[in-house]
Here is the input.
Amino acid sequence: MYLIALISTLIIFVLSTALSVVISAAYVKKRSWNLLAWSSGLWLFAASVALEAIFAYAIYSSQLIDLYLFLVAVLVEFLALGSVLLVSNRNFTRAYAAYSIITDAFLVYSLASAQVGNIITSGVVFGPLPLLVIVASSLVTFPAAALLIIISALSYRERHNAGMISIIAGVVIVSIAGTLYIASFPSFLYYAEFIGILLLWIGFMYPFKKHGSA
Here is the structure.
């Protein structure tokens, strides 16, 4: 398990960082707010994977664990915000932004008040979380994942962009990856992240190549 965690996190970190650079470069070129949100989410994903690599070396603390749990939840929000911005509805965007701020604050409170404890076993993220943290994380990730699926599906129906299917699948897998270790499948966390980032690569690169934008 230790070797799997170490190798997979390093590979996933390289892939996620590379994709973050590509999307960030697209934002600099196009100055599109949805690309900024997507690149921010991908950078947060890369940061969370970097923490997993650190954990694999048996380097961890309660502060790092809390930071990791915060990042894996909030990154889904940023990816969702990128899709919400594509809708071009100012009221909807503001409503989701306000909801995100409130739920993020609640997540910070839950992590500060609940005793998460050590969820690192043999360098692998594995262990049950306090109920308050699970509830707070769910309020952040579940609506975000639902919005990503709905908006991506609608976009595919309108544009018939096959890359959207890959984005939907990649985001769903990345979104649920953080819950897999809770269900006593710690190795699946890394498998899911690897598959998820590959699907995101395919999904994001396909529209860039075909249409010149995400």
